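Recap from last week: sequence in, structure out.
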Amino acid sequence: MVWRRLRIFSQALFFALFLALGIRASQGFTGAPWNLFPRFDPLAAISVSIGVKRLLWASFWGAALTLSLTLLLGRAFCGWVCPLGAFLDWTSRPIPRKRRSRGSYLFHASFFLLTFILALSLASKLWPLFLDPITIAQRTLVASLHPVLGWLLRAVGDALYPLRPLQGLVEFADKAWRWVGLLPQGGLRLYRFSLFFLALLLLLALLNRLAPRFWCRALCPLGALLTLAGRFSPLVVKIDEEACTQCGLCADICPILPAGANRVDSRADCWRCADCIAFCPEKAISFAWAKPHCQPLTFSPSRRAFLGGLLGAGAALLIARSDALSRRNSPNIIRPPGAKVKLSLGKYDESEFLSRCIRCGLCWKVCPTNGLQPAGTEAGIESFWTPILIPRIGYCDYGCTACGEICPTGAIERLSLEEKRRRKIGLAYIDQKRCIPYSLHLPCTVCEEMCPVPDKAIVLEEREIEGKTLLFPKVLPERCIGCGICENKCPVPDEAAIRVYAPFVV
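Predicted structure tokens:
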């Protein structure tokens, strides 16, 4: 049982590391190693490199290490390291004690998804990377699991605090939760699509009822990539022919073998879980080193999956260019400072930003005001789940550069504080029909008071109206950087009287 125990320990260790890095990222720790797991993702590395048409060694040095270890050890990353794989392993049905039929269950559709993702990357379209297992785990932790856990801890503390004997304990627990990061600084966080992210994770867990680790075997595009690399691994599952009694137990417990197999073999999609070694009653199975060779696949991706992926990518490009889904310059899409966007031929060009962003959600996590949120359909399907600033939820902190420091791909450039303060991300406009001084002729100077720009991008003009002197706010476009604090702090309920829009759009 040594190999199996080592594998379970490795899964628990890396899963705990994933949780710790993801949770502590909101406590002011924003650079490496807090974005460690996306940097070790080969699918993200290859897709982004194809999208920007150059190798990004500085961003994805860990991905090269993952591929190198896969060439040596096979698809061990899935069984020993992947946090989503560990979660699905722990939520699968117990290891069966009798043979069962597995059926096809669309197994190996992962090769289709892999081809689909890489083909769209050639056109610099990275939105299918929302299917990458590392980004699925990262988004769910950021937007769903951590906020829900924080809400539960806060609710329990509020319920127990009125009990006088427990007040000291509750205060100590509150400080402890904040120190470890379970209660974020600045209050609880809310994110768009958080219920959807959580529902997707639960759906993957429910698919385990069809077969153990259904996602890993049938749908995971990263798993398909590692399967192709693992074909050359010299580490194999060796069977002692003299000791083997052909009992078939190893085939029963193996999650990757098709129905009808009578014992395990050294397949390229084996993720080295070591269950067959642990439960063999004759101890006839072991890991061994063999002469490197190209191992056979249980399914050849060379024709159907490859052609299907290309056709699917072509269809996706056509659909994405339709009027309803095509990328468009929306005034409500305010990117974080440092996002690789530019003004090109009179248009707000986001091509490089969209060809780098892998939708991991780390930038949402580190935003101290909760203002960075996943985009919906505001700018078409290509911008889906990329970060946008929603000032009514939170503004861009004038003294913060966290989003650029945490971004693992360089989609958000790492800026110094001085550069960040000069970067224009939007422009404020005053709706005089809603602004209190203009519409109600009552005093209000909140937007001017909150403006963080030293020279003030919002100034006050004195006017005589109805026999009294009032101060009316006015935006100076050349000074406004679009941080959104004026909109966030505007006392007008519902829609603010001062709104921030993307620059060069309106």
